[in-house]
Design goal:
Helix content: under 10%
Number of domains: 2
Number of helices: 0
Radius of gyration: 21 Å
Shape: elongated
CATH superfamily of the largest domain: Immunoglobulins
Distance between the termini: 14 Å
Largest sheet: 5 strands, antiparallel
Structural class: mainly beta
């Protein structure tokens, strides 16, 4: 029997646009679980991207960024960003169609609304339902078609095994639902 699993990512990063002022030497990223009450400040020198502290799935976080110059003068903080660390919903209605022996196409659909967004889908294959390995990935932007409620995906697959099992994992920056 196969079971679903939520696998948190190893880390989440934040990236922002550079401040246009020429004397900017760094940024401060403010991070917390309550609006306007930041429990962590990350100093980022000479870059516009940083790793965030560990996040807990299902929790909401608030972030803001400011720029500073060599004298330590700090700009006002950016507008606050509110982010909930949710992994995507699972892929739905996974099926396989065959065009010739060993030639198949795995198909699934993904909801368009009311679920966390998936960035990509990873296709896992197994011969025994115990050991799974990645057979490939499909970007969320590579859908084959869509309707008002669903986005549809296809993944061609060639197999030289008599029996194979497949599952599709949906993932984003916060983790993967398999």
């Amino acid at each position: 029997m196969a079971s679903a699993a939520v696998i948190p990512s190893n880390g989440v990063s934040l990236e922002w646009n550079a401040n246009p002022e020429s004397d900017v030497v760094g940024y401060k990223v403010y991070f917390g679980t309550t609006s306007q009450n930041y429990t962590a400040v990350i100093d980022v020198v000479g870059a516009t991207k940083t790793q965030l502290p560990a996040v807990s799935l299902g929790s909401t976080y608030y972030l803001a960024v400011s720029a500073y110059n060599a004298k330590g003068d700090e700009s006002p903080r950016s507008a606050e960003l509110k982010v909930t660390a949710d992994v995507p919903a699972p892929a739905a209605n996974t099926s396989m169609s065959f065009s010739a022996p060993g030639q198949a196409q795995l198909q699934w659909r993904y909801p368009k609304a009311n679920v966390p967004v998936a960035d990509k889908f990873t296709i896992y294959a197994s011969e025994d339902l115990k050991t799974w390995s990645s057979a490939g990935t499909v970007a969320a932007s590579a859908s084959s078609s869509s309707d008002a409620n669903w986005t549809y995906f296809k993944f061609p697959y060639s197999a030289d095994k008599k029996r194979m099992f497949f599952r599709v994992g949906a993932s984003n920056a916060f983790g993967e639902y398999q």
